[in-house]
Specification:
The protein has 177 residues and is mostly helical. It has two domains: 1-38, no CATH class; 48-162, Glutathione S-transferase Yfyf (Class Pi), Chain A, domain 2, CATH 1.20.1050.10. 58% of the residues lie in helices and 6% in strands. It has a two-stranded antiparallel sheet. A hairpin with a 2-residue loop joins β1 (10-14) and β2 (17-21). The longest helix has 26 residues, at 84-109. The protein is globular. The two termini are 30 Å apart. The model has no long low-confidence stretch (mean pLDDT 90). It comes from Penicillium freii. Residues 1-39 form the GST N-terminal domain. Residues 47-172 form the GST C-terminal domain. This is GST N-terminal domain-containing protein.
Length: 177
C-alpha cells in the first residue's frame, strides 16, 4: 500500500473514502490534529519556541538518522563490497554521531523527556531510533542522557504497548518481553 514499499501506513476511512498516509511525521501530525482527546505531542500553539525545539529533535531522528540507517540503504551499502561489516560500520557511525547531537540537545532542552517534562513527538520518534541503534550493536555508553531517556520511555505503558516486538504481526522469533 506504500509506494515506497516500506512502513508505516495509516488507513483513514472517511465515509466511503479510504485515505492512506505513508510517512511517520505526516501520520503523527494527522493524529495530533485530528484526535484532540489524545495527549498532545506538540506543546501548545502559543509556545513557538518549544514547538520548534520538538521539531528540531524530531528532525535529528527523521532526517539525519532514519533515512541513512534504514534497511534499504544499509543493504545497498553492504552490496557495494558484499560485506556485512561495511553495513554495520556505516550504520553505527551515523547512529552514534546523530545520537551524540541528540545528547547535546537533551542537555539544553530536556527534563524528564526530550523537551521538558511531557512526552512529545520527539520522544515518539526517538525511542524506535535508539532501539534500532542498539539492534545494530551501536555502542551508546558515552550517551548517558540518551540511554536514560530511552530507559524512562521504555517504562511508560504507552511505549510498551506500541513496541514493535509485541505487535500481532511480529514474527515469533523476534518477539520480546
Amino acid at each position: 500500500m506504500n509506494p515506497n514499499k516500506s512502513i508505516p501506513i495509516l488507513i483513514i476511512k472517511e465515509d466511503e473514502n479510504e485515505i492512506v498516509l505513508t510517512q511517520s511525521i505526516a501520520i503523527l501530525e494527522y493524529l495530533e490534529e485530528s484526535l484532540s482527546t489524545l495527549a498532545p505531542l506538540l506543546p501548545p500553539s502559543g509556545d513557538l519556541v518549544q514547538r520548534a525545539q520538538v521539531r528540531e529533535m524530531v528532525n535529528i531522528i527523521t532526517k539525519d538518522i532514519q533515512p541513512i540507517t534504514n534497511g534499504r540503504i544499509a543493504k545497498r551499502i553492504r552490496a557495494i563490497r558484499g560485506k556485512a561489516k561495511d553495513q554495520i560500520i556505516f550504520v553505527t557511525g551515523f547512529f552514534f554521531a546523530d545520537l551524540m547531537a541528540y545528547e547535546e540537545l537533551l542537555a539544553k532542552y530536556g527534563g524528564q523527556f526530550s523537551i521538558g517534562d511531557v512526552v512529545t513527538m520527539a520522544d515518539v520518534c526517538f525511542a524506535p531510533a535508539v532501539e534500532m541503534a542498539l539492534a545494530y550493536g551501536t555502542n551508546l555508553d558515552g550517551l548517558p542522557r540518551v540511554m536514560g531517556l530511552f530507559k524512562k520511555l521504555g517504562e511508560l505503558p504507552a511505549f510498551q504497548k506500541g513496541n514493535w516486538k509485541g505487535q500481532g504481526d511480529t514474527p515469533e522469533a523476534m518477539r520480546g518481553p
